Amino acid sequence: MKTILILALVFMLSPVTLNAQETNNRQSYWIHEDQVKPSKQGDYEKITKEFIEACKKHNLKGADWATARVNNGTYLSITPINNMSDFDKNPLAPLADKMGEDKFNDLFRRFNECYDKHGDRVVVLTPELSYMPNGLTTNTAGQNYRKWHFLHVTPSNITKLKAKIKEIKALYQKKGAKEYFRIYYNGFGTMGDYYLVTISAKDEKSYIELSNQTETLLGDEGKKLMGEMFLLLDKYETTSGWMRPDLGYTAK
Fold this sequence. Notes:
By secondary structure, this protein is α+β, with helices and mostly antiparallel strands. The protein contains 6 helices and 9 strands, in the order H-E-H-E-E-H-H-E-E-H-E-E-H-E-E. The two termini are about 20 Å apart.
């Protein structure tokens, strides 16, 4: 979880879901990453749930975040932001007043014992590159499994990569592919450039099955475009994990 300062900056009230009418707008997200120690993951989740219960008990307003757990034990707190002025808000001040500073500070002292490294970055959802024919949304009910593909690229190739992703998306549309994806690009807080491809599924088995079906559907044309895309990359990485609704909070 976050230090008190980061929590105060990050938790802003803003809808996590984009509907069909909003697909022409780019939504930015503040990502806070906690690299939780293997021996402390149980404690981390317990403290997180204590914090959520405190938010509910004291009816904290102006706070809304989702949580994902990466399979390497990293936890991501994901908060939508509208602009830089969001960082000036402190929605946790009423919670500290109601809990009392001693209890409030003790809660986050225990959080800080769960990790040695944490940090922050911003990513921006890019509708023109994403493929969700039924409406662009980050809230995929019944599909909490996540596969993340990081397409690292040098500045000299970033324009070419964007154009190639558009070609791939057009092929998905032409073939009516059922594998949907959202694409983000990195904002501040990260060295280098990358596009992040996010795919939701019921579980890992379902993801693999749909991925294989899509590869067959796209055929030789798909293999050619993917090969051309990989030639543009500086580095390619994948990771997986799960969204954790039990570790998120939405203000009422």
